[in-house]
Amino acid sequence: MAESDVKVRFTCAQDVVPTCETHYEQCNNFFCNDCDKFICIECAKKDHREHDWNTVGNISKQRKSDLSRKSQEIREGHLPKLTEKMAKIDSLMEQNLAHRDAELSRLETHYQNIVTSLTQVVEDRKKELSRGLETKNKTLAEIQRKLKTKAVKLQDTMDDLKKSNSLSDYNLLNVDCALNRVLPISDGEDLEDLKYSLHFKEGSLTKESVELLLGTVKDYDDFTLTKIRSFRHDKSDIICLEVDFYSNAVLVNSNQTYWDTVNTKGKLKSRNEFYSHINDFAVLPNGDIIFSENDSHSIQLHSIQMSANDATRTVADTSPLTPEGVCLTSEGDILVTMADPEDENATGLVKMFSMRGKVKRKYEYDSSGERLFKLPFRVAQNKNSDICVLDSLDTEHGVLHTISSEGHTQFIYKGVKSLQHPLYAADIVCDDICNIILMDAKNHHIHLLDSAGNFLKFLTRDEGDRRHSLSLALSGDILWAGGHNGYLSVYKYTNNS
């Protein structure tokens, strides 16, 4: 009997002893613990000489106590875990089905919106084409009416001329004068100019344009975050984090009087002293720093090209409000969140300044007159011009409130149900295709959202990343994460789609 034919089932006290596959004349009266297989005496002497083997009876006695323990482990541990995992799989399959149905519903809704919009556009085009007909034909009808009037007068005059032999001299002259008034009959308006002149020009209709209009299907499994390196830069929390032109991290630690530039290998490239209480900052393309200064309630510009005495100047005064988050817009302006942390009425708002300090836009109220924000503390502009604002509702809750460049609420992201703790959004960046990457300080996750605020996935949810949950910065495919006690992580952010 082949060894593979031996079944792990003990139906009686006496089983048929199998013979050895290699030594057919020998029975497998021994068992090797190292290989977990039955062997014969010849196998024991040769291939298993250095192994832990013994007679089947002795090994059986040794393992009887282990079988009792294993049975308990299976009964109390493994089986419940398998049952729990199978239940999770059932739940996940149901969730997947629900998510698929939700995405199909979104597609159908978008399609119906396109059909509704196209129908409206078609009706508008029909009205335009009809108005062109009405205008030209109205003019032609008026010309025709005048011509009919002239024709009647000419016919009457011709009838009078037929009687010219019997007309008196006075009547003849009156007829001739009447004829002169009708004649000559000029061409009048150029009828060529009154031809129907509107023409419908078809738009470009290609498979690509239709797909662009309808939208695309993205697999968010294609978006991955791979840790390149993790290191400790300092001992204090990294409260502000940006990147320079070379993808180096520019950071500010809490209670420090300098900002550091660090490369992806953890090497300190430069250290710049400042004597300000910085809440947030942004790096300009030339390396200069725009930052919000807590004590003076102002926005400051620090130039790396100037001497220390002249390096920093005030761009804008935000008094009496305290400036918090700072970012640069695609047009080169500055977005600043500001609030009075001591005000119970929550007077938070966002302002857009020019580089010269002129207020260009203020975002404070929605269209119904309600306040948009409570205590906004971070801001970023997405590639689609949306303004993403992190708003602190209290010490335990921080949400993402995204508004359009005109100030209309686009969405408010409050997290997902699977979170252990309420969402507290600590920092935010946007990638090149308008996805939003959000740092969750309470749950220590990095969330990935699409531009409409739909949750796609957790990019990280590793317990080991708890130390890297305060700040984010993105440059191309390099994502930096800063956290407590000076820890920094460098990730490669990949979109395989």
TrEMBL record:
PROSITE patterns: ZF_BBOX (PS50119). Gene3D superfamilies: Classic Zinc Finger (3.30.160.60), TolB, C-terminal domain (2.120.10.30). Pfam families: zf-B_box. Residues 20-56 form the B box-type domain. This is B box-type domain-containing protein. It comes from Magallana gigas (Pacific oyster). The keyword Zinc-finger applies. The lineage of its organism: Eukaryota, Metazoa, Spiralia, Lophotrochozoa, Mollusca. InterPro entries: 6-blade_b-propeller_TolB-like, TRIM45/56/19-like, Znf_B-box. One of its GO terms (molecular function) is zinc ion binding. Keywords: Coiled coil, Metal-binding, Zinc, Zinc-finger. It comes from the Eukaryota. Residues 126-164 form a coiled coil.
